[in-house]
Amino acid sequence: MANQGAFDIVTLRAADGPAKGDYYGLPWPCWGTPEIKHPGTHTLYNTNLHVKDGGGTFRARFGVDREGESLLAYNSWSKGSEITSGYPEFTYGVLKQLGWDKDLTGKERATIEKIGGAAPDGVGWAVDLSGGIIRVCLEHGVMAYGNAKARAIAWNLPDPVPVHREPIYTIRPDLVAKYPTLPDARQFRMLNAGLTHQKSAVDRGLAKDFPIVLTSGRLVEYEGGGEETRSNRWLAELQQDMFVEINPADAAARGVQDGGWVWVLGPEDGSKARVKALVTERVGKGVAFMPFHFAGYFQGVDQRGNYPKGADPIVLGESVNTVTTYGYDPVTNMHEGKVTLCQIRAA
Amino acid sequence: MARVKFLCDADRCIECNACVTACKNEHEVPWGINRRRVVTINDGKPGERSVSMACMHCTDAPCAAVCPVNCFQTTADGIVLHSKELCIGCGYCFYACPFGAPQYPKVTNFGSRGKMDKCTYCAGGPDDKPGKAEYERYGANRLAEGKLPICAEMCSTKALLAGDGEIIAQIYKERVLKRGYGSGAWGWQTAYRETVAL
Ligand code: SF4
Ligand code: SF4
Prior knowledge:
The structure holds 2 protein chains of 2 kinds.
Chain A: E1 65-66, E2 69-70, H1 92-98, H2 106-116, H3 132-139, E3 185-187, E4 190-192, H4 194-203, H5 206-209, E5 212-217, H6 233-238, E6 243-246, H7 248-253, E7 261-265, E8 272-279, E9 287-291, E10 296-298, E11 301-302, E12 317-318, E13 340-346
Parallel strand pairs in A: 5-9, 6-8, 10-12
Antiparallel strand pairs in A: 1-2, 3-4, 5-13, 6-9, 7-8, 7-13, 10-11
Chain B: E1 4-8, H1 18-27, E2 36-41, E3 49-54, H2 62-66, E4 72-74, E5 80-82, H3 92-96, H4 132-138, H5 150-154, E6 160-164, H6 165-179, H7 188-192
Antiparallel strand pairs in B: 1-6, 2-3, 4-5
Bound molecules: iron/sulfur cluster (2 copies).
């Protein structure tokens, strides 16, 4: 905060003082070594600025061509670029082709050649520990990561263009036949048996006993699993209770009061979580929301004593993932925390 | 000298509580005491609005009028400061204040609630010179350093404005003209007996 006054409120760059030239907070990406004094990037892919001023291009991330069509940028480059067309990611080899390798210092070149061993031309900007490739690129007004087009068809993903698939635990089992999840498959070292689980949930008629769609998400006060932010006394005071947000109609049907305790019951293994009810119309009828920043209670039981001494956050609460269910993203294996079913009862 | 005020643009406030957190951190305000808080009405309904509230530093402050030991004084800038040296914790100011600003550190069935605490407009207290003793009693004195209240400085949407009343009223007017709507300068009629004419 010490130099806050130096920053222009429109351009977000500091006019003078120790932060002179920087964008507020040195926003990512802030290129190169500290000596380069890159100002940070206020807006990504801004071709109206020189790369040294936080300008940029779209990264060449998916190769240079596909099915005979160039994937590189067409008619677009950042201000002051010496290459006035699309270009691939930079390697030592690309620098050599352009004759720009002579701008490397002896030390930078030695580092690159050491990293590359028998094939130094393949050393790319991202593994060049000397930072020389990035530095030389900035000098020539280009982005080390290339200049390409965005893509709308992600050909290496299971659904190159997103299609509708019913959740594994769905409130509309009648739609599963038409919109099933992806077939079971081995991903990384694990079996992802989403389809088996989806079919089983439909066959068992689970949606009858668990008629509320449950989703999870963030609160502004906390971050991630919340262990750190719930340990911050200013933030902890603002959100002292884990809760489930439910619609007034669902609350009334269950005799649930705003601020009262409820059990949220999950459809797997008799899972349950004891939390407070937040009754609002922000969630539709038949939908419930729980934040994912809490832990430290398990199925109604306080676990504070199990934390290493002094490591227990100020505020504890049930973890929403006690009641969320099976499901893994086929590309990242990220678990399904965003849609499942639940039942809610006054506690 | 300028008459400083607070103005919360309820059409901008997103209930992020950055102002509350900044205030607590700047002044080390203890758990359970809130110099500033965000009040949300119609939560989860169309027309939901949030307003960030603290002591408004009223003109002819009602708290000062009822205080039996004359704790309060208004500075040349219009800031209502309160002396913890004199305060007997009777709680009258809490009843008089239209904004619920006064806070007390103790809850007891009988007797003192402890020394009242409220927003100082980041101007420290009336008794001490800026320094450690003042900080412990009243929190930071940013005004003495030429800085405005930290809540408004940290507001993520610039809903909360602090400074010369005429300038912040002008900023608000320009906003309302530009976006074509404005629900008014909340609390101004009560605190300052005037409103921002649009
Ligand atoms: S808002 Fe309340 S505490 Fe602040 S000056 Fe007005 S009456 Fe006094
Ligand atoms: S920081 Fe600004 S937007 Fe956030 S709650 Fe406070 S007044 Fe509202």
